[in-house]
Amino acid sequence: MHKRRWIVGVAAGAVLVSSAGLAAAQIVKSPAQAAVDSAAPPASVITAAVEYRVLADSVILRGAVTAEQTVDVSISGAPAEASAAVVTKLRVRAGEQFKAGQVLLEVSGRPVFVLPGEVPVYRDLKPGMDGDDVTQLQTALRDIGHGTGTDREGYFGAGTKAALHAFYTSVGYDPLPATTDGDAEVEAARDGVTEAERALEDALAPDGEAGEDVGATDPAEKQSPAPSREAERAREDLRKARETLADALAASGPMLPASEAVFLSSFPARVDSINTKVGSVVADKLLTVSAGALVVNGYLQQHQKGLVRPGQKVQILSEVTGVSAAATVASVSDTLQQERSDTTDGNPGMATPSGYLMVVEPTKELPSELAGQDVRLTVQAASTKGKALVVPVSAITAGADGRTSVTVLTSADTKRKVTVTTGTTGDGYVEVRLGAGARLAEGERVIIGTRNHLSGEQSR
To answer: Which residues are registered as beta bridge partners of 73?
Structure first.
């Protein structure tokens, strides 16, 4: 019995010694094994698929939608019969289109209308005047259906007066007279002619009969056998009186006040904004109107300028309305545009560059509601001709000999280097072209970097 217990004890002790030895073996390692076990695992490669598609390089910037012509409508002074310039009617709404000859608003009972033309109004136009602005008025009146008769181009004569009077009547207003006492001056001149005619008659025939040329109907044509000095003077007075009457007639009639006309280059035009309301005293700017096709102006920065040239395609996007439109680059300035910052503390702001002006023309007319909006412009700076093999830019490596290549991972531990020539780049990808004998197909995986498993860092 004692012998059996002794055998069991020995066996148990052997097991304990064996277990302790095994544990010690797990804890105690040789220096070489410890170094191997503590080394970082090998880095794994990161790959991307070779793609076959159209590649486009894009330049994105902001742009402002503007018209070929933009005019701020303002009124200086008040009509003669009004004590103050007050907006009494508004005939248009913001965003509305209007045509030539239309009244935009009324100030102190007087109209403000638009006419076709490119010369800005800078003076009141009155009968008897000459100039290019008179020619523009004549052309505008004819364009809206009011002929100017036999007046020569550039002269404000009887035909132009009649046409201007007819236009005012058509829009529901009476034209202002060119002179304050125009009718009185004409009547006074007529009276002067009558008096001069009678004076000449008296000089030619003091007694009412002697020397009278009965066949003459014009007193100036009546001849006496021996004209006296008094008769000669009377004839001169009559000539001057008739000239005065002609001048009074020429100067009388309707005028075009500079405050009542706005000239725009094309129609229909648009109301961009309204800065007043009925009852308001006239401010510096009442309305902003624009004419001509809408274009978009953007500013390229130095690093973008070399990528953009006239003729490239552009996508216009209004983030406000969601409207998008196709366009092309019309021009790119070679001069860096400068703009001055706002004045602060009474000192002028510093000049700051805003970039190189790029003008974009839509392929179709833009909706009028885009006028004045800030939009996003995406310029297609370059594109492959059809589909091409493309890889991420990070897949390209350059050798000491200047050749570029990509490395294809064919299996877990097999790689193949393929020499390529690069082409168009865009959106982080680059077009690759293969030399003779080179093989690279869509779907193959190219190495674009490595990843360290311990740090999680990636490298190329």
So the answer is: 287
Whether the link from the prior residue into 268 is cis, omega within 30° of 0, is yes
Last residue of a domain, one of 349, 382, 415: 382
Q: Are residues 376 and 391 in the same domain?
A: no
**417, 405 contact by CB (below 8 A):** yes
Return mean pLDDT, the chain. Answer: 82
Together in a domain, 442 and 407: yes
Q: Which DSSP helix (H) or strand (E) runs through 59?
A: strand 56-73
Rounded CA-CA distance 179/133 in Å is 20
333 found inside a domain: yes
Chain-centroid distance, C-alpha 441: 47
Q: Which of 218, 236, 251 is the last residue of a domain?
A: 251
pLDDT in tens, 83-99: 678 999 999 999 899 99
pTM score of the predicted model: 0.58
Task: Tell me if 167 is assigned to some domain.
Answer: yes
Residues 265 and 137 in one domain: yes
Where on the phi/psi map is residue 347: left (φ > 0), alpha (ψ -120 to 50), or beta?
Answer: beta
User: What stretches of 28-157 show up as alpha helix (H) in DSSP?
Assistant: 31-38, 132-143
Give the structural domain span for 151: 75-178+254-274
Residue range 71-127, pLDDT digits in tens: 999 886 556 565 678 999 999 999 899 999 999 999 999 999 999 999 888 999 999
Residue 355 maps to a domain: yes
DSSP secondary structure letter of residue 368: G
Do 89 and 105 meet the contact criterion of CB atoms below 8 Å apart? yes
Q: Residue 251: CB partners within 8 Å, gap ≥ 6?
A: 126, 127, 128, 178, 179, 182, 185
